[in-house]
Amino acid sequence: MMMTKYSSLLILGLLFVFNLVIAQEEAQAHVDVTAEFPDNPFGLIVNGQRNKVILDIQNKEKTPYTVFAISGQVSKVDDFSKVVRNLTATRYGQILSAESSLQLPYHFYSEYAPGEHGLTVYVDLLSENSIARVIGYNGTITITDPEGSWFDLQLIFMYFILAAGAAGVAYVIREAFFGDVKKVKKTKKVEESNERPTHRDEKGEMVLDESWIPEHHRNLNKQQSSKTKKRASARK
Fold first, then answer.
1. How far apart are CA 51 and CA 56, in angstroms?
2. Is 113 strand, coil or helix?
3. DSSP per-residue letters across 152-189
4. Which of 120, 45, 110 is nearest to 80 (CA)?
5. DSSP type of residue 147
6. Quick one: how many helices (H) and strands (E) in the chain?
7. What is the dihedral of CA 133, 139, 140, 141, to 10 degrees?
8. Element (H, E) at 192
9. pLDDT tens digit string along 93-136?
10. Of 104, 122, 176, 207, which shows the fewest CB atoms inside 10 Å?
11. How confident is the model at residue 199 (pLDDT cuts 50, 70, 90)?
12. How far apart are CA 167 and CA 118, in angstroms?
């Protein structure tokens, strides 16, 4: 961790020295650089994503160079001198031989307001006798926010948690207000099932309800039934 911090400070310090030297005396390097956005062919930059620029560096001199670092800055689209933010510098240390070409990637992240912005990418070159900075890209980019998706796992998980919470609240409310009603209904059903029907005796045999028959008719029926029993016994 300490070595990484010291390396970052060293890069920033050297870039600061480069800026001072270049401001005082610019070395004219016959080096052409073209930039390409392989993942963003129309210069459409999405916030929060890692953006890549491929720099094709062509050395037209007979002097070799060393590509020390690549950096960049985001500026106002109407005035590139108004810098919004400097991008992180990446150290390379790649040798660019005389009259040869070299391709290097440069990555940066975007966290800016949506809309058009200016982007400038610098390539810092070292030689035995000079320091040079060439522009790798200087143009307009369009920054947008990422589109939301219904298939986002985080959103699905959040919806699941909300649905589970709503179901739990509904269950508590139902038990609090309607739980006693169900218990009373069940108790009544059990009591009704335990009562013995009035039209059957203890043995379960059918018993006729004679309460509606006049009393003298019931006495006649009893006398006739007793006579019938006596006759049957006499015959035996």
1. 17
2. coil
3. -HHHHHHHHHHHHHHHHHHHHHHHHHHHHHHHHHHHHH
4. 120
5. P
6. 3, 8
7. -60
8. helix 153-194
9. 999 999 999 999 999 988 888 999 999 999 999 988 788 999 99
10. 176
11. low
12. 51
